[in-house]
Design a protein that fits this description.
heterodimer, A: about 375 residues, alpha/beta, Rossmann fold, globular, B: alpha+beta, Uridine Diphospho-n-acetylenolpyruvylglucosamine Reductase, domain 2, Uridine Diphospho-n-acetylenolpyruvylglucosamine Reductase, domain 3, Alpha-Beta Plaits, 7-stranded antiparallel β-sheet, 5-stranded antiparallel β-sheet
Chain lengths: ~375, ~475
């Protein structure tokens, strides 16, 4: 989609309906209370641009980019609002409006280092230190564990990846990784409107996975999960994509893993990309229930509120992003839980910035509760 | 110093929106209009407190600038559209719940809290605010008062005025007033100025806080639907239920056509329209709520009486549930589907007259005649009982409007005006839930006659310069008389 005209009909439908029901669950709107920063207003802004009612101004660019693309608005509407916003960003870029300066540097990093974090490619392999994880070789494995750049290059998140790998081994999943050759999934490129660069990367990725003989990708990152799923669907590839929680839930549920269950109240935060956008709600909860006392926040599953880290908001609008995180942690505290469990590196990092609540990775939680956490594959492995 | 500079000084620049793209989105509500008819204000302000509102109005008063207050932008007739530009006061930034008083069953809120937010806050105390329009997710307390909109549960609890104990407002001169009777349910003291706020459309002042009466949440609810051969028979039946002493919670009469609009989820699920007997002209939805045995006995008695009126119970629960979900719970799938699918090319537009209870059927036929005369596709009529324990109803006479066609929008407005005037000739009223806005202003005298002069004086008392929501209720020229 290159021109806003292409979805004028959708924008007019929103104008015609004008219910504004997108406002209630929009984390940005609920914090800012400015109507251009929610879908009804954003759709109207795009309509106004089409009608030539105003020029592109910094406020228009802000309306396009001050959004986490969390998808809550889509829950209330038959229109594909998240797609509108993404296309709006693409439109601005195509019309010569440079991405937010914070986004430009991220894009440069992806180009130069294969990750948005300015980390050398070799950093991608750090998390495997001390683990016996084979590197993918053409034709030697069917399952690829896709670590995702954020967890791989962020030291504090390495433990979660190691836990994922150990649990997959316990589950008897024979997998390999791509080590430092693991590519960027392209999530950031896609979400900040760099569609052409994303399409190129996506094609190249599928080629590389195919060359290795990969049939299934298991990832620990919800952003990679939805992006790789989209890639496979759009490029007609039969490579299956799963989040690690989907692979591991059975292990926790059917007693194949000896677990110490505590009475601690824990709440689960659905990452937008895994839950609302990826449709994975129950498997992570089964894992939490297996090891602790799960209590729900009022806004859970489809209604989960974004942590504020998504779609470039954390880098371009840090103050707002922190406010969203604080709100979510307040909601978690309101449940009486002492630990918040989640399964996304962005949510984890973001929510840990707010004091007063322990934030743990789902896989780390499960591994820590496992009585034989250092032993090899579980019996009756697949 | 310009008034905009003064606003920036008073509120801070982040609370003053000046960019054309930002102002643009505040220039239209839910009412049928072409997208060329956006009427953006000159500046949007986002007050947080009553004092902020006072500062804004004092600046507007000094510079003689129009001030229009708004919230969810879900008005159905342009009531909060700033047709003369000026300052748009977005009240949704004032959304705090100030006090929940469970013992006295009241809540004090800022006027920009949505009705749903109020209910979210009081639900833990097993209390609720029963004023529930379909737009409750975005419709605010202040807007519900200023527009005097409908409620699903009017026949038991009435409309917002029945819940409103007291309200704080800022007048057109910037004076802060508290109108009402604190936490007492009613008063015989003084003039009931608080009541002037219902349907005032922000023309007397900007409502900033309100104390609302809450009700205990009933334990259970049962909803049923009955079909009648005539709309008048449904009215007679409801009158009979009240005579019997039954406690209705909701009562809505839909003409057969209108039901289709509300049962979109049924059609989506089953791939067909709900099967309603061909002889049926009216569908009545009723609900009872309370303790299960009381609800059951009320319901059984109501269904027994239905036989006297040759009414037939709709046995297919999917139809009833689809309607109820669409109307009240606004549950995910039905709601998500209903609006954009039904309104992809055309939009819902309505006239909202009120007629004497015995003339519903007669007026229904007039509605069809007028809609056909103006070549508008008919959605249908419904009558919602909005007065506690009484058969008084509001009417929604709805048509589809192609908002992409200026000519069809014009025909819709003619249709609306004709029905409004006709309602007065029927010994009724022009408006029951949308208020007058600018649309009815030119012919308001038709309904109010000589008393309009007193209304004009009331307006001038609260807003001597006529800066508050100009053009609404009174044309600008009329106020200058």
């Amino acid at each position: 989609m290159t021109e806003l005209d292409e979805f004028k009909d959708e924008l007019e439908t929103c104008f015609g309906t004008s219910c504004g029901f997108c406002e209630r669950g929009c984390p940005v709107y609920q914090t800012m209370k400015v109507k251009t920063l929610c879908m009804r207003g954003r759709n109207r802004t795009m309509l106004g641009l089409i009608q030539g009612r105003f020029e592109i101004t910094p406020a228009v660019v802000q309306a396009a980019f001050e959004c986490t693309l969390c998808g809550n608005c889509d829950r209330w509407c038959a229109l594909k609002n998240t797609e509108h916003t993404r296309a709006f960003r693409e439109y601005l870029l195509k019309h010569g409006y440079e991405p937010m300066k914070e986004h430009s540097s991220i894009l440069a990093s992806i180009k130069n280092y294969g990750n948005p974090w300015f980390q050398p490619r070799s950093a991608r392999n750090r998390w495997t230190k001390g683990l016996s994880v084979p590197k993918a070789v053409p034709g030697q494995q069917e399952v690829l564990f896709f670590a995702g750049c954020t967890s791989a290059v962020t030291k504090q998140l390495n433990k979660g990846l190691a836990a994922s790998a150990k649990l997959l081994q316990k589950a008897g999943v024979k997998f390999a990784t791509m080590g430092q050759d693991e590519p960027c999934c392209g999530s950031t490129l896609y979400r900040v409107g760099q569609t052409e660069a994303f399409n190129e990367l996506a094609k190249d990725n599928v080629k590389r996975f195919k060359a290795l003989g990969i049939k299934k990708i298991v990832t620990a990152c919800p952003g990679c999960y939805t992006t790789l799923k989209k890639t496979m669907a759009e490029l007609d590839s039969d490579i299956e994509v799963k989040h690690v929680a989907q692979e591991i839930a059975d292990l926790a549920k059917n007693g194949r893993l000896k677990l110490k269950k505590s009475a601690e109240r824990m709440t689960y935060h659905d990452p937008c990309h895994l839950g609302r956008l990826g449709g994975v709600f129950e498997e992570p909860r089964e894992i939490v229930r297996a090891v602790a006392n799960l209590v729900e926040m009022p806004n859970n599953r489809y209604e989960s509120r974004c942590c504020g880290a998504g779609a470039g908001l954390q880098s371009a609008f840090p103050r707002l992003s922190r406010e969203l995180a604080s709100k979510r942690i307040s909601e978690a505290k309101g449940t009486g839980a002492t630990t918040l469990v989640t399964s996304c590196p962005f949510c984890e990092t973001q929510l840990r910035t707010v004091p007063g609540m322990k934030v743990v990775d789902l896989m780390e939680l499960l591994l820590d509760a496992s009585e034989d956490k250092n032993s090899g594959p579980a019996r009756n492995a697949r | 110093m310009s008034y905009i500079d003064e606003l920036v000084t008073a509120l801070g620049k982040e609370k003053v929106l000046l960019d054309p793209s930002e102002r643009f989105v505040y220039g239209a509500d839910w009412s049928p209009r072409t997208s060329e008819e956006f009427a953006p204000p000159d500046v949007v302000v986002l007050p947080k407190t009553t004092r902020d509102v006072q500062r804004i109005i004092r600046i507007a008063y000094a510079h003689d600038i129009p001030v229009t207050a708004g919230a969810g932008l879900t008005g159905m007739l342009g009531g909060a559209v700033p047709i003369y530009g000026g300052i748009y006061v977005d009240t949704t930034s004032m959304s705090s719940v100030i006090e929940v008083d469970p013992k006295n069953q009241t809540v004090r809120v800022q006027a920009g809290a949505t009705l749903q937010e109020v209910n979210d806050a009081v639900q833990p105390y097993d209390l609720w605010l029963p004023h529930q329009p379909e737009s409750k997710w975005v419709s605010t307390v202040g807007a519900a008062i200023a527009c005097d909109n409908d409620s699903t549960f009017g026949v038991r609890y009435g409309k917002i005025l029945n819940c409103l104990l007291s309200a704080e407002m800022v007048t057109g001169t910037g004076e802060i007033l508290e109108l009402g009777h604190r936490k007492a349910h009613f008063t015989s003291s003084g003039y009931k100025l608080k009541d002037l706020l219902a349907g005032s459309e922000g023309t007397l002042g900007i409502i900033t806080e309100a104390t609302l009466k809450l009700e205990p949440i009933p334990a259970t609810r049962r909803v049923d639907m009955l079909v009648f051969s005539r709309m008048g028979a449904a009215v007679d039946y409801l009158s009979r239920l009240l005579k019997a002493g039954l406690c209705l919670e909701a009562a809505h009469i839909n003409c057969k056509r209108r039901l289709k609009f509300y049962t979109h989820s049924y059609s989506q699920k089953f791939g067909k329209d709900p099967e309603i007997p061909s002889w049926a002209e009216a569908l009545l939805a009723i609900s009872f709520a309370g303790d299960p045995d009381v609800v059951d006995s009320n319901r059984e008695h109501a269904l027994r009486i239905a036989k006297e009126f040759e009414a037939q119970l709709v046995e297919e629960r999917a139809i009833v549930d689809a309607w109820w979900a669409s109307k009240y719970t606004l549950d995910f799938e039905p709601f998500k589907q209903k609006w954009p699918d039904a309104q992809r090319t055309k939009k819902f537009g309505a006239a909202d007259p009120g007629v004497p209870v015995g003339r519903l059927e007669e007026f229904y036929h007039k509605f069809v005649e007028v809609a056909e005369k103006h070549k508008l596709e008919i959605i249908g009529m419904n009558a919602y009982l909005e007065h506690p324990s009484s058969i008084g109803f509001s009417l929604s006479c709805a048509v589809f409007v192609d908002y992409r066609s200026a000519e069809e929008v014009r025909r819709f407005r003619e249709f609306h005006d004709e029905l409004s005037k006709l309602a007065v000739a029927f010994e009724g009223t022009m408006s029951t839930f949308m208020s007058d806005t600018h649309q009815k202003a030119p012919y308001l005298e038709l309904e109010h006659g000589a008393s309009l002069k007193y209304m004009r004086e009331v307006k001038k008392l609260f807003d001597p310069k006529g800066i508050l929501n100009p053009g609404k209720k009174f044309t600008r020229e009329d106020l200058r008389r």
